[in-house]
Amino acid sequence: MRIRFQSMGIAVALVSGVLVSTAPAAAQSDTGVQPLVAIAARVVADDGTTKGGAGSDPDPFIAGKPLTSYIFTGLSGAGADALCSLGSSNTTSRTLEELIETRAHVWKVTVTPVDYQAAKEKVDVDWTRYEAGSGGRPVASGRQRLLLLQGQRSILDLVHAQPGARCAHVELDVVASAKEDAAFADTVLQYDVWLVHRDPAGRKDSRHMILTGLQGSELPFDFAPLRFDVPKFVAGQYDYNVAAKVRGHIRGRLGPDGNITLEVGTTRMNALALRGEFADPPIAGEGRKILQVKPGEAVEIELPSWSGFSGRYASPADAEAGKGTVTRIGVGGGTGAIGGARGAIKDTKTAEPISYSGGRIVVTFPRFFDGHQFSMIVQAKKLNDD
What we know:
Elements: E1 2-5, E2 12-15, E3 18-21, E4 33-44, E5 50-55, E6 59-60, E7 67-73, E8 86-90, H1 96-102, E9 105-117, E10 120-131, E11 140-149, E12 153-160, E13 169-180, E14 188-198, E15 204-214, E16 219-222, E17 226-229, E18 240-254, E19 260-274, E20 285-293, E21 298-302, E22 309-313, H2 316-321, E23 327-330, E24 354-357, E25 360-364, H3 365-368, E26 373-382
Antiparallel strand pairs: 1-21, 2-3, 4-5, 4-6, 4-13, 7-8, 7-9, 9-10, 10-11, 12-13, 14-15, 14-26, 16-18, 17-18, 18-19, 19-20, 21-26, 22-23, 22-25, 24-25
């Protein structure tokens, strides 16, 4: 993957799906933002919606300074709904022994910040869960090191409610967040984002969207798939095309020097799809980049080459002969197999770009997209700035 600046020459390489920049150190910092970390729990209903929560106030991320909190559910003996209400306490206002005696479930959680770099928080987490009637003995525990992106929450523990409860489960999380510089907290940024495709003959196709939001907000983008024709191999063949989809997020912050720090994340997916269809296949590649640009400066990010393969029955007759419709999608390294000896792919790096065998159409993405170029162009500025 490469990044092209109009006026800032910064090169980027792709290593195992992760973006690695050779930019100066200043481009990796988050000027004017204070990272925060918190412990939280939430009550989740059967339909997946959140019905309540509790937790610690977000604390400044200070390496080596631990944050310990207690999270607890309803009173012991309250029946099936005891899990469906939550509370929290610090270590000075309540003792662990008192909570264990009176509450249905109690978690003691300690989060110790380790390191903060480029909007990523590294933390050590140590948690223990107690239950009423356990005699003060832990019933579950865990210890782990996590790397969290801003706005990310990582599940530490999950407890399911009893049958008949008005909630489904309680989820215990550690949460990474940030406090914006007060001088810029109300700044609204506008982003122009293009997805650009160039074929081997140099013809260009593009998608464009405009996003606006408060600085520090993560704004999602989701481009309509780029679609490529599939030849007809058999009579009655399904109306297939090869769909290439890119989605992701962008986040920006204005610094005291007037420059904008951008975080751009992308997810790339391919599929052999029916025309008008795009059921998300496995992710074919992810990338994330933090860089610093001048307002209005356009940055072109070249996306890496595609990997993997996709195969489906070619026609209703083929599906009937195969006793059912199937979709096979492989991603990653370059080898994989699709059902039956006649339809098997042994090496996606040397297989035909698109073929029909054993009743299936198979697309091998490295060969199909050989000579194609996919890139994103991003431009950011303060809203209403000239």
